[in-house]
Target: AfsR/SARP family transcriptional regulator
Amino acid sequence: MPAEVDSEQFEKLLAAAMRERDKGYLDGAAVRLKRALSLWEGDAFSDADAGDCVAAEADRLAELRLVALEEQTDVMLAMGAHAQVVSRLKPLIERYPLRETLYRHLMSALHQSGRPAEALAVYADLRAKLAEELGTEPTPDVQRLYRALLSPQAKHHGPTAVWPPFAVLASRRTPSQLPGDIADFVPCETTDVLAPALTASDRTATAVTAITGQGGAGKTATAVHLAHRLRPWFPDGQLYVDLGGSTGHPTDPAAALAQMLLALDHPMSALPEGIGAQAACFRDSLRGRRVLTVLDDAADEAQVRHLLPGNVESAVIITSRARLTSLPFTSRVEHADMSPHQALLLFRRVLGTSRVDRDLAAAREVARLCGCLPLALRIAAARLAARPHWSFGDLAHRLTHRSRPLDELTHGPLSVRSCFAPAYHRLAEDDRRLFRMLGRSGVRVLSAPPGTELPSLAVPDVAEALERLADTRLLKVVHPGTPGAVPRFWLPGLVSAYARERAEAEASEIERAAAQELRRLADREAAVPVLPAAIGRVRAGRQGAWGPVGREPR
Model:
């Protein structure tokens, strides 16, 4: 069980300790940090074969252990245990000679122990090491502490004064804005890719990562879960902004900046005019701080460009239905659907193993009819949980025989239509017309050489229109496998149901007649058969293996 694994217990205790520290409960934080560090006996995985995955996880845990040691000394300083901090930091500095937080703590501990000359000597030693090995100066926080120790006030008050780091940290608000972590399924491969990029100790720029994919693919749940797991790496705060990119009213970047600056305790009265100046103010507020920002549901690159930190210590997770290919990402992962096996695991988690296994064939059929789309699967499971007298067969029948199957995939505020409606409404009218005709005609797979026209639909280039529909994720591409071959586009079942609804509500008589023309085009292009295996490759070409919370990051 995950709860019995030392590394899992260690991370939970560390996160709990930091919550206690943020609330000012130093005793509770000290107890949890001591328990967390007591779980360590030697280096992580020292008795295991050093494969790449094992080595990466060992490095991650070793870095996290060092973070815990830094937090423990921070709390000890605040509680007045200055002499103990001095004795425990000196061997750590010998092992990690460029870890500036350790020097900062040692300087503070020496001064508070009545040894100011030694504190200044520690700073001189650090500055010489950084200049020789990296050609840099100490961080602004270390320099501020050095100047404070040189001030007449420091000499006057002597060792009784409470000096940084804790006094500095206590004066700076530590935001914790993440939504609640959802006990759901997340793609383990996504977190395996993003976690190292977000926590790498040798990075030279802000880690900017992204989770992209169609609506309902679980991007937000994964980003929030990963951000919770990485809280110990970002002790100076976690920011969260819902950018509303999939709604009709995306959040203005200036409003998002104001929200984050307010969370960082920046007075709104001092906010400069102009988004460029506000973005610079945001970057300055993060200087020297380890803050993780989640920018959820971004509309496009322009919306997030001014919302990115500029310091190497901070990191960003962006989620978006757009691919955001022009941003300088450290890492980007594309989400897709679950596999049928993973869909059954989700059903078992929500409804219990016995209910799923006694109706297994029908459960598989419900998963198929849901297209293995995570949101659709969750809604199906929620409806079955709310109506225990329904079987999977009952729901499968309703999804198959109702004229509006998407009505069956609506539960409370959740609706599968929300996965497709925003993309549809952002289309130009010509592209919306083609989408409606796909639904009206029943065509599910279509390709067209460049320049193909549909005169009755006023579509001058069908190939380009199909590409635009694929860009919005309303179509999927069946890769032809041959360089230069004309791609085929596939309309998944749930999207096809939505296209039929839009055609029934909006299509004109001319458009209804034109559906015949679209069918003829599809028949003509079907001279090159679309094998079921080709569509299977689209379904199987998913990014990441989905698994239950607790297995990642590995």
Observations:
- The CA atoms of residues 117 and 375 lie 62 Å apart.
